Amino acid sequence: MSPPAKARPAEIAAAAVLVAAAVWPFWAGRFLPLLDLPQHLGLASVIARHGDPTTRFAELYSVDRRVTPYWGYYGAMRWLLFPFGPETANRLLLSAYAVALPVSAGYALSRLGRDWRWAVFALPLVFNTNLFFGFTGFVLSLPLFLFAVGLSARHLEDDRPDPRREVRLAALVALVFLFHVQTFGLLGLSVLALLAVEWRGPRWALRRSLAYAPSLLLFAPWFLRSFVFPEARPLAEAHTARHLNYGTLQGLGVRYESAGEALSRMPERLLGSFSDGSDLRLGAALLVVFLLALAFARGASAEGKGLRAALRERRGEALALLLLASYLAAPMEMAGQWYIAPRHLVLAALLLPAFLSAPAAGLRRGLLAAAAVLSLVMSFDAAAKVRAFQRQVGPFPEVLARMEPGKRVMNLMFDNGGGGPVRLWPFVHWSCYYQALVGGDVSFSFAGLPSIPVSYRPGMQAPHPYEWAPQDFHWETMGRSYDYFLVRGRPWGDAARLGEHADLLAQAGPWQLWRRRGP
User: Fold this and answer.
1) Does residue 359 form part of some domain?
2) Torsion (CA) 427, 428, 433, 434 in degrees, nearest 10
3) Which of 3, 36, 261, 383 lies 20 to 30 Å (CA to CA) from residue 492?
4) pLDDT tens, position by position, 130-162
5) DSSP for 14-81?
6) How far is Cα 229 from Cα 223, in angstroms, rounded to an integer?
7) Angle at CA of residue 71, ends 65 and 74, nearest 5°
8) Are strands 454-456 and 61-63 parallel, antiparallel or unpaired?
9) Collapsing DSSP states into helix, strand and coil, what is residue 517?
10) Long-range contacts of 503-507 (CB under 8 A, 24+ apart)
């Protein structure tokens, strides 16, 4: 493998500008239009402020101190939340992700024998669809995955193992698991492929696999207690009443989609979050530039070198194709978790620049510059969407200021925000901002899911409608358990008759806050 190309001062300056632009959207407005983000902010506050009596967190929730796949995110939030607060702490983590994603892509490319400059194609993928779904643990695991792939390639190709490198690799792979178990599984698939390419016998494979053993020791107890010998989880099952069942290997509730649907929806699952389709158009332009680069940046053919040598030279391409195949083979839903297969797609896309085997030199610099310009436009467009979202949020802080800590709020989002700048329903979990910023309980929580280190104490979860179906709210069976009712949009069903049982505490723009009358 040739040594990585050295960066010139002008290239370093350009990279700094591109990365700064990728960070900017996370600071372009107070509220980020990321669907699941309020849930994660709320649970991060439960962990960080568990002993605060004003919040009632200790009364309502228990925190599992054992290892679970989301402790990477919640542990980082735990230490950042006290000095910065939940919103800024989360912005710092997402900013680190925006910086680390292209850097890790460049590192992986260089370790796979490619020019790190082609990582410019990874920059627009900072704003992939998973981000706007609010899958925070998953997107934070993406750069860790790329660093681990690059370090694994180096670890397996060397003639002798380097103990210090093995320690770094073991820690890095463990971090991948602690941020997201699905990324950890795909990393395992990638490592197995690299082992097969570099195969030098069973003893060699066993010795080189020792660096991955610590992460497996973390994974095994969590997997066994969650799926093989599940603890009694009636509250968790109630939480997922509208999901397919989970809890044993026999009850994973696997659901596939057709191959036609999986193929036709690939563009929107990679870059397709904005209502005006601007990210899809920019993604299409980026694809054109990539295809041109593919035509002009192919290196010498590997023919005549033998299958093993050819595979070794094309490791990056093989990994990208393997991850793409895993997207087509994986289910859409399993174990109460939705959107499983589409997450594979962004990992495959991040490794696609491995197909560009010639360096970004000469006339190919023009293609590099075109990709850089598209990356800048993507960043500016994402920042514009965040700013526009602030107008859609409207005077919500005024409503939040009227809510006291230690209460329970019913989330009734009849307007889930799907018609705004981001089409992925950003208001569905909005009441969790009360949990995150004030402290108290919410009607629908991720607490109790196998990857989440927070669960309700026995008997402490209140009855609630499914978050996506506020019209299923019924006062007699649910309303008496709540202190506040946060409404957005025009309510119907029992929610339209809140005035019979509650007082309107605040009304601002599309928001209504009701407080239950009586004890």
Assistant:
1) no
2) 120
3) 36
4) 999 999 999 999 999 999 999 999 999 999 999
5) HHHHHHHHHHGGGGSSSS---TTHHHHHHHHHHHHTTT-TTTTHHHHEEE--S--TTHHHHHHHHHHH
6) 9
7) 105
8) antiparallel
9) coil
10) 505/402, 506/398, 506/399, 506/402
According to DSSP, the residues that pair with 515 across neighbouring strands are: 484, 503
pLDDT for 199-232, tens place per residue? Answer: 999 999 999 999 999 999 999 999 998 877 765 4
d(CA 252, CA 182): 15
As a whole number of angstroms, the distance between CA 246 and CA 227 comes to: 8
Percentage of the residues of the chain whose pLDDT score is greater than 70: 93
Inside any domain, residue 282: no
CA atoms of 10 and 365, how far apart (whole Å): 13
Q: List the domain range (segments joined by +) for residue 473.
A: 393-516
The token duo for 272 is 């397709």
pTM (2 d.p.): 0.95
Each residue of 263-317: pLDDT tens digit? 999 999 999 999 999 999 999 999 999 999 999 987 655 555 677 788 889 999 9
Distance separating alpha carbons of residues 325 and 39, to the nearest angstrom: 31
The helix (H) or strand (E) run that includes residue 197 is: helix 181-197
Residue (of 350, 349, 362) closest to 297 by Cα position: 362
State the angle between helix axes of 136-157 and 71-111 in degrees (0 to 180), rounded to the nearest 10.
40
In total, how many domains does the chain have? 1
- Say if 446 falls within a structural domain: yes
Q: Strands 407-413 and 440-442: what pairing?
A: parallel
- Residue 242, CA atoms < 13 Å, CB-side half-sphere: 10
